[in-house]
Amino acid sequence: MELFPREPAVTRAVPADAPLAERMRPRTLEEFEGQEHLLGQGGPLGPVLASGAKLPSCIFWGPPGSGKTTLARLLAERAGLRFAAISAVLSGVKDLRDEIARAEDERRRGRRTALFVDEIHRFNKAQQDALLPHVERGTVVLLGATTENPSFEVIPALRSRARIFTLKALDESLLARIVTRALEDRERGLGERGVAIAPDALALIARFAQGDARRALGLLESAADRAGARIERDHVAAAFESRLPDYDKGGEAHYDVISAFIKSLRGSDPDAAVYWLARMLEGGEEPRFIARRLMIFASEDVGNADPLGLVVATAAAEAFDRVGLPEGKLILSQATAYLACAPKSNASMLAIARASEVARERGALPVPLPLRNAPTELLRQLGYGKGYQYPHDFPGHFVREQYLPDEIRDSQFYEPSDQGAEAATAERQRARWKRDEKR
């Protein structure tokens, strides 16, 4: 970090019993490991600070444990800004307003504020819009952190007013260096305990951490608690197995957990469904993805057995967009519990599957003449629309008519189930068409 003049470490009150990853959080840019493509010679952040220019609003995009939060804090401190942090998962509009009010007060006193928004992609559009005027007026310098592509998750107006910096996952050699530093640090790390580590155990921590410094230090701390004077490979393996597997939105866990969620809904088990919902939300799954899955489920697996299921799921998706997190969890939980307890039918799904198969196999079968549109006299002379019977002119607003092409006139695609409201639908259709007698 020769690019920056050395600065004194900023003292922060970190409890002695805080997790090792928190105690070892870098206090200066000189202690910060990795991201040389941003901070090194010729990197985009170097000239900003080296020249004494003001720190612009920034969005840091990168995987967990790559240093987004720490880098934001250190850059704010280097620029002489007051650092205020909120979480888009845990904070609501009131928290945002409170921080803006403090920032306005500090600005009147001559000090600007860097507002750090962790997981900024979890703010909905309305919440992101609420930030915009304060960024434009310079009330705050926005520093956002996200694990999601900001091109899709951050509104264009905010993106246009911030510089986007991409952080990379830390490589294994860098993670090994971070772990070794924590073992040797007598002030904040494990140096006072005099714990050594076997080379293969150190390599295993670096591999298990998968680019995440916070995970590496958590594994180290857990392995050290199991070991005596020396951490061996078995201690690391035991520490890794004891930790709850992370929910990887791009990996196998994503597909396994969403599968468990849908199957629990389909199996009418609200307890299991809400559990898997919680697992996804706590693991950082995009709530709008969950809302979309609920809407699909409401049609595919509940269908007309309870037509309100789709209404509930759609309303939940719209309400979540207005409310956001954390309160939005309640909305998703309500919809999940409702759909899990609703009567089930996949008749609508089977109907479109059957009809699609026939449409593909039989091609463009001609529309029966009585059903064709007849906007001109010529078409009427050709028989278009001739003989069409208007259902509302008949008792019960129903008249027996052939609506399918001749070639498939006896086909039945939708077969209502005997579940919930669909049972009444089935009875009504039997009474109308008397399928058993006529077909």
Distance between the termini: 83 Å
User: Into which percent range does the helicity of residues fall?
Assistant: 40-55%
Coarse shape: elongated
The total count of helices amounts to 21
Give the total of beta strands.
7
**Binned strand content:** 5-15%
Taking pLDDT < 50 over at least 5 consecutive residues as the criterion, the unreliable ranges are 1-11, 435-439
> Can you identify the CATH class of the largest domain?
Alpha Beta
Helix vs. strand class? alpha/beta
Main beta-sheet annotation = 5 strands, parallel
| Strand/helix succession | HHHEHEHEHEHHEHEHHEHHHHHHHHHH
CATH superfamily of the largest domain: P-loop containing nucleotide triphosphate hydrolases
Q: Looking across the biggest beta sheet, what order are the strands in?
A: 2-3-4-1-5
CATH domain topology of the largest domain: Rossmann fold
Structural Rg: 31 Å
Overall mean pLDDT stands at 85
Q: So, CATH architecture of the largest domain?
A: 3-Layer(aba) Sandwich
User: Structurally, how many domains make up the residues?
Assistant: 4
